[in-house]
Structures
1.
Amino acid sequence: ATAALRFPPFLSSRAAPKTTAAACTRRTASATLRVAALPESAPVSAPASTSEERPEFSPPAGFAPPVPKRFAVKDGQLASVAGAALALPFRLGTGLFVLGYSVSLVSADKIPSDQYSLEFLGLKVKETSKIDQCRRPEKPIEIYEFEGCPFCRKVREMVSVLDLDVLFYPCPQKGPTFRPKVLEMGGKKQFPYMVDPNTGVAMYESDAIIKYLADTYGDGTVPIMLSLGLFTTITAGLAMIWRVWKGSSYTVSKLPPQPIEIWAYEGSPFCKIAREALVELELPHLLHSCARGSPKRQEIFKKHGLFQAPYIEDPNTGVKMFESAEIVEYLRMATWGYI
């Protein structure tokens, strides 16, 4: 089970970063200033004005999560899904499968009915991987990035390959909260920027981050499509060409007390559409990677009797839901409180 995460008090509103002497003093105490989620048990002092800085978050009156429909595209969404799916041929499916993924067909009685698996011609698909042989981080890795950046996409693909849980802090253009924090922490407004609370490592540069993740939480190997230098960056950019402005610019919103949790993976066009909205609204989110071969698919299957991505759980409102188009609508509902 994932421990609940909360933000430090100084992130309870979209206030511009201060440059006072007190703020400079706090900079020396990285545990206080660093933009990191705090365990629910950690003491969090309330801001001076809770009515203005800590708004109430609740779903709209009468809101009901949609019934999940596998492989269905909502009316009017076909162009968006098709544009997001262009990444698959350009990136040759990188991010669709976890490390060491393999598949075989077995008779239906070989896999219990309460275990997630695909069915094909009366047989079941048995999926295995090397993930259970890799070190797992105790705390979520923190990454500051935005959806429309090819360098950021490269790192997200590696996150999917390694089946990592990552606390993403979106940094869209003109975003008031996390872009300034990256400058404060690392000295450069450059993305992606990674902080690993498990090792104390913090770094820029997508290729360096990918190699670090491979060495620390994988078997040391980097997938071929992430190791081709300039070609990797060009194809990562081409993968987003039809949605290049999506997930890049800030839309005014309110910062919720806790990050939204999302089960998703980089190779899915449906997941991309949901994450674009999270980034544009600058909503921090704890991503549970669940590419093919991920054991986290079984977690969702056990809860709901099916697996489908994206899937979100919002600890601020209690809403749990599937369906990418409806997730985007939910996040953008002005009457709800995020915008």
2.
Amino acid sequence: MIFVIFGNSLSRCKKKEMELIFIAKPCALGLNIQANGPQKAQPNAILEKVFTAITKHPDEKRLEGLSKQLDWDVRNIQRWFRQRRNQEKPSTLTRFCESMWRFTFYLYVFTYGVRFLKKTPWLWNTKQCWYNYPYQPLTPDLHYYYILELSFYWSLMFSQFTDIKRKDFVIMFLHHLATISLITFSYVNNMARVGTLVMCLHDAADALLEAAKMANYAKFQKLCDLMFVMFAIVFITTRLGIFPLWVLNTTLFESWEIVGPYPSWWVFNLLLLLIQVLNCFWSYLIIKIACKAISKGKAGKWNPLHVSKDDRSDIESSSDEEDSVLPAKNPHNPTTNTNGTSGTSGTNGYLTGGPCAEEH
């Protein structure tokens, strides 16, 4: 099974690359989404060596040392490192393509899950998940559903370490780990029936979130706000309402009555409760964003970006960048050479450039 999962993950990556090149990118260009990333930092051999070999976040002591070595103002050096970190972040075009790929997958897997479950008896009567357990047949459709979901989350787990780290890296890592453990554990212990209910329920809102992101990148703000509102309603309804009242009810109480508690029962329900804790955390973030948007509306200054702003934004910004040109520590020595290049190359203490726009 492990080889099948890794094979599916590799196949998904290839399909993803093909879609990004032949489908998502032309769609993005058709919507006038350009591949413009954050502003690039000016070349500087000394700072680049520190950035790549030592640290991307220099402390105050190191900043002071670099300031003396380069004869730059500390503020300029901080700006250079901020711009250099942002330089590695993906462009809006890349983000749109990634969201389009995820939207396509979430829409497909949710549609497949609904079509599969509506033909099963345990969708309408959750006690059917436990009758004749553990001697329940594993059908090809159910097996395909599990392999599809598991390969997807394994690919997310791997890509998380190669992509730019976001603010919620730990939370997402914990989520992926819990999800993979839950899917694998339910498959191995033949709890696949209730597992399909969990997977389909948690896939319901994901496509709407990716649609909201795509609309935001394309600057269709009204559509973005509508998608976000729909996402928030579906997310909170399914994960804080239906999931505990329907799924947790059958895994905690109906299973206890029909098959009784056993060692793997405790592990399975512990993982489900961990997922529910994460659901509560994300619901809190969604409600927090919605409250900010409502408060702005009541103040008579409606800003729809407050609805769609991504709190996971990984583009750094600062009020320091409002100035287009900041003077160096020694502005009267414009020809100082610090890295073997001419003074007019921009490495002599002057760091020019406009503001670095925050990614929403």
3.
Amino acid sequence: MPSSLAMHAKEAAILWLAGFKEACSLHRVVILCIRSRPLLIRTSQCFLLNGLIFLGSLFILKSVVIPILLWILPDQTEYFAAEHLYCHKAALTLYSFLRFILIELFYIFWFYPLYIFSFVLSTLWYNDIAKHAYEVLTGKRPSTTQASKENDLTGLQTTSNAFVPGGFDSVCIGIGEQVYSILLLTLFFIEVFATGFIPYFGKAINFLLLSWMYAYYCFEYKWNHSKVSLNRRLDFFESNWPFFAGFGSPCVLAIFFFSPLVGYGVMAILYPLFVLTAAGTHLEQVVDSVRRSFRGGGPKKLHVFYAANKIAMTIVQLLPEASKTS
């Protein structure tokens, strides 16, 4: 039993390293951007908005604005003349309050609107980046692709497309899957957020769940364009959970130790790069080539989305009852 457990742990570590290696294959980003000018423009715009403007604004606040405020509104008694020391406490309290108000106004009228603007615009740009990458890799637009001509995820696509009806039913199923996927990932995000408050082991669990979440988001663009059904995505993801934990780790490592605003800015810069590396990953081929070397068949399936899926299904089952009673 201990030897079997050690063997499975070793195989999980090998899959994790394979995912980590694929995520760090950033040379694919350069190749894809060279082959597609629209992709290069969109990626550059993400760097400009989130790196130069957003992170640059944070840098200016910390390095320029706050020091100037401290010079104009000092927080130490050494700036006061000796004859005015009797009122320095009241002055320092007033100065501290004014600095707080001015910095908060800076956040309210600049950073928070910029954050919302960056989040919305970046979300649209990420989809464009994934679409342009898909066009470069397949030579087709996503709407005209066929699973038989894909070089990657062939097993996933043929299985997912085998029982999908056409016409209006197919559109309804697609919309339903998208809505359920949004609900599922929202609940999973709440789960990730909640684990951060667990004492002692919370940070480690939060890191692992964040890695899975970012990895899923990175590959979701590719799966959407490849018409892979939600059930097949979740099954493949949970069957190869160490690979996706490794793939999401570099992005989480880059933001895990920053403040929320700085972490968002860094993530917004790096995320499109990992979306592109995910688009260029021959996912099923990589996983199969690693698993073929396993004597024990590889790690067992782990139900990563079990809790989120159960809650989502409960919410969906309650919807008809709510509509009837209303």
4.
Amino acid sequence: MPLMRMAAENSSVTEFILAGLTNQPGLRMPLFFLFLGFYVVTVMGNLGLITLIGLNSHLHTPMYFFLFNLSFIDFCYSTVITPKMLMSFVSKKNIIAYAGCMTQLFFFLFFVVSESFILSAMAYDRYIAICNPLVYTATMSPRVCSLLLLGVYVMGFAGAMAHTTCMVRLTFCANNLVDHYMCDILPLLERSCTSTYVNELVVFVVVGIDIGVPTVTIFISYALILTSILHIRSTEGRSKAFSTCSSHIIAVSLFFGSGAFMYLKPSSLLPMNQGKVSSLFYTTVVPMLNPLIYSLRNKDVKVALKKSLSKKTFS
């Protein structure tokens, strides 16, 4: 792989040591079981939602097409991060090879950026469904949905490539202890012996785009949705419209709030311990909560789950 070859040539470091979440031995086993539980719930919740949507034909609509992909993304990037984080609780030194670190960084960024754009695609879908219901089927055709999804993954790939390419050009110092539980951008920049000015500029520009564009899209979509809802005369109609969007609003707030707090504040104002806690939200907590938020607050998913369970019981 060209990037890995370039990395080997540019750096004297062949491996990194991940410091993990805590250096207090007494907290390691309780945290291990806590985050193992989180990961099990994340895997079961997201794979369960993927299976449920795949098996129930009445859920084969644009809204659930995007939800299917959101669950896939959540499952993938949680799997990229959590198993290695769990290792830090049970091993004296959580070592990761240089190539493995850069690979983890790439796929983490790919899935996180993809999630930000799929949330904006879901907001656009809700805007069309509520504000233009008569043309919903024509507007959100399978071709349009596929193109939106392609755009989501293209932006994810572009963002991941921009950061990873800049990272492998750096030379890292002999001190290879990364003060984090994963290979993330800011902790790795602290270990560089060369100037990180370009990397920091890329962080503000690319992260600004990856958070800014979806946030503006979501804000405009929900401003138009709110305007449309206020014109609905019946209380029942308003309540139904609000319930349709509430799950998505909760997921968006959790994801973008923690991401912006981590990356869009100067590192001097954000101690690394606070950065770890913030990153826990979008790497561990959000992927676990998303399937719960979308299933517990969604009548269609509840009905599909009851049907699937009843079929299984009957058979």
